[in-house]
Write a structure and sequence with these properties.
The chain is mainly beta and 288 residues long. It folds into two domains: 177 residues, no CATH class; 84 residues, Elongation Factor Tu (Ef-tu), domain 3, CATH 2.40.30. The protein contains two helices and 16 strands. Strands 1, 2, 3, 4, 5, 6, 7, 8, 15 and 16 form a ten-stranded antiparallel sheet that branches. The protein has a six-stranded antiparallel beta barrel with strand order 9-10-13-12-11-14. Strand 12 and strand 13 form a beta hairpin. The longest helix is centred in the middle third of the chain and has 14 residues.
């Protein structure tokens, strides 16, 4: 079974979440808690004292046959760094360690062997990062903590979900529907790779020579053999010509971490609300 695990963080009025995929023989999300508790206890050793893991969301994603499955469990146990001295004070919330994950070579999915994944690990110990953003793994026990976390992440089959292309087609006609969504006519027959009535994640590129609100990620529904409809309302005041669309597999394949490495410099990562806080106003969805 493939699970999606979201680690939720909070501290100093801000928060963030880190999501990874996990492959495990369990079928019940709650059965992963003993494994994930060990990951959490290792992860918080890289956090400044003001920050903590305040929750886990464990969701079933797909079974071994590649079919989508549902079901989730939320655990609200709090994990904190045991060191509470002045030397364990956190860098500002926007400063983040950067981790790069490399794919484990796979016989079944060799096309993903060269893939890399980037994760921002926020709020490191202040002593580990200087004013220029240079990371010092030898300070604050960071290097040892990272090595322990890396070992348990790889040992518990953590990884990530990748986009696998099923259709890559040029666009013939682009038209606005009366409800504001956009209808896309492709040069290729879509039936076979796609199922009529199903939604897919896609990316549109090069419309109007790359200058169009259509370009970028979209959710589309397959309407007929060569017609797609966007889920979003997208404003297109000008005529839209050219371009292509790449449509991805509905259930994303799992790629296991083969290695994890710590960047030599920190990055800036915008924070949001603490994990688990009440959402505010809904985000605007209309493009244009």
């Amino acid at each position: 079974m493939i699970f999606r695990v979201t680690y939720g963080f909070s501290g100093m009025g801000t928060g963030w979440a880190e999501t990874h995929a996990v492959k495990n023989d369990a079928t019940n999300p709650r059965d992963l808690l003993p494994v994930l508790a060990d990951v959490c206890s290792k992860r918080v050793q890289m956090l400044g004292r003001e920050f903590s893991i305040v929750g886990l969301r464990i969701s079933r994603y797909a079974n071994d046959a590649g079919a989508r499955v549902k079901g989730s469990y939320i655990d609200k146990q709090i994990y904190t760094n045991a060191v509470n001295t002045a030397s364990a004070a956190a860098e500002p919330a926007k400063v983040a360690l950067v981790i790069r994950g490399s794919a484990l070579a796979s016989i079944s999915s060799p096309q993903f062997d060269a893939n890399q994944n980037q994760t921002f690990l926020g709020a490191p110990l202040d002593v580990c990062v200087d004013n220029a953003g240079v990371v010092y793994p030898g300070k604050g026990g960071l290097g040892a903590a990272f090595a322990q976390w890396k070992s348990v992440m790889i040992g518990t089959s953590h990884g990530w979900l990748v986009n696998e292309t099923v259709v890559n087609s040029d666009l013939n006609v682009i038209a606005q529907n009366t409800n504001g969504t956009v209808q896309l006519t492709t040069t290729d027959n879509l039936v076979g790779p796609l199922v009529i009535g199903q939604r897919y994640k896609a990316r549109i590129r090069d419309v109007n020579s790359g200058v169009s609100p259509l370009n970028g990620e979209v959710i589309v529904t397959c309407v007929s053999a060569n017609t797609l409809k966007t889920k979003e309302v997208i404003g297109i005041a000008l005529a839209q010509t050219g371009g292509a669309i790449r449509i991805y597999k509905q259930v994303q394949p799992f790629v296991k971490y083969g290695d994890l490495s710590l960047n030599e410099t920190a990055g800036n990562h915008k924070r949001g609300r603490p994990f688990g806080s009440t959402p505010g106003r809904a985000r605007r969805r209309i493009r244009g």
